[in-house]
Amino acid sequence: MAGPQSTEAAGGRLRSIVGGSLGNFVEWYDWYAYSAFSVYFAKAFFPKGDQTAALLGAAAVFAVGFFMRPIGAWLMGVFADRHGRKAGLALSVAMMGGGSLMIAITPGATRIGLGAPLLLLIARLLQGLSIGGEYGASATYLTEMAGPHRRGLVSSWQYVTLIGGQLVALAVQLAMQAALDETQMEHWGWRLAFLIGALLAFAVYLLRRRIAETADFEASKAERKPSSALALVREHPRAALLVVALTAGGTLAFYAYSIYMQKYLVNSAGFSRPQATVIMTGALFLYMCAQPLFGALSDRIGRRPLLIGFGIGGALLTVPLFTAIAASGAPLPAFLLVLAGLLIVSGYTSINAVVKAELFPAHIRALGVALPYAIANSLFGGTAEYVALWLKQAGHESLFFWYVSAMCALSLIAYWRMRETARHGTMAAQQG
Fold it and tell me: Which domains does the chain have, with CATH numbers?
């Protein structure tokens, strides 16, 4: 039987995991609210042109925010490796909340002209710094807090909370769509979503200040090894390049099926905004529930088989799925097709955090997880929506589907050639 001390330790670990996950949830609510509500606020900041042109302007700022992610990953990855995981987590959520507050209170372009898109850009740059550091800190924190045989399961909660943030953003959107008309939503309703995000971020900042530090970080302090971009490139070049290769296809597919899909359902498949929101809410909820199942499966059979399954499915089925969604004609078949795509992506999203954490030693783990991931995510994930809309405007929308398929195929090569990190990674010796 477990004694009082072991029970207390298990309870403390659970509280820390929950606390870290809730912070990740709020981070991603704030991040996703931009995409979910851009269909309403785009014209407030970019009033000239048709709907697609306004969405392109909003998507461009969304993409620019991604290019701050490598800088945030670098600065905050080093910070988390030197000062602790929980310190990095607290700082990241504070910056995210500040960016959301800026968006909530910034006047539209009709009142302050170019100042409106400029302030929107500054807010997204701040949020880009935040989310760049959040990924590495939270992935490292959850993996290090997990028991040795449950790393896949526990780390999968990073995407549970990520999708949870998206779902709450969509739920807020649904509630507002029910309570407000289109004019109210476009004039001021969307600002409430960002105000909610700022308030939640402040509450979670206080929570993250009180969670426990990980044993891996405490042990690494005694080694006094440096965490820096130079040390990462010099000492772990193969692992860093592998993270880029692992991420490229996975992050592009994820943003195609989650972030861009809502616009695709409206602009290309012919659904109304409320219909698209309902479709995405249902599909994302089931996708969220699937993450721990995939994560637990990886603890049994390894990470590599799940990654290979995603690579094959993403390469072969992306074009047929997007084509079928455009021709679906009704919400139910569209929902099932979107869900099928998201379940394929689960082979990557459920375990990508633990795979990357298992590639690096503790003293440089947060930076090693965050920086190469952020670079790949900026190049492929952050630009996904803009590339898709640009190709649609140019009359070659189907090229985006082929682009996603090709990147999944390239990542598949990396999945096929890599070693199994659960057995051969830097944390394998802790399996006991």
Answer: 18-213+237-422 (1.20.1250.20)
Give 395's contacts (C-beta < 8 A, 6+ positions apart).
none
d(CA 357, CA 345): 19
Counting beta carbons within 10 angstroms of the beta carbon of residue 30, is it exposed (0 to 12), middle (13 to 18) or buried (19 or more)? buried
Collect the ranges in the chain with pLDDT lower than 70: 1-15, 47-57, 59, 62-63, 65-66, 223-224, 428-432
Which of 396, 137, 154, 401 shows the shortest CA–CA distance to 261? 401
Whole-number average pLDDT of the chain: 85
17 in Cβ contact with 142 (< 8 Å): yes
Nearest to 159 by CA among 292, 30, 256, 34: 292
Structure tokens at 211: 């969670």
The terminus-to-terminus CA distance of the chain in angstroms comes to 20
CA distances from 147 to 9, 85, 142, 345, 430 (A): 12, 17, 10, 25, 9
What pLDDT sits at residue 290? 95
Three-state SS for 302? coil
Q: Mark 203-225 as b/e (b = at least 16 C-beta within 10 Å).
A: ebbebbeebbbbebbeebeeeee
- CB neighbour list of residue 2: distance below 8 Å, 6 or more residues apart: 10
Task: For residue 252, give the nearest of 359, 28, 409 by alpha carbon.
Answer: 409
- pTM, two decimal places: 0.82
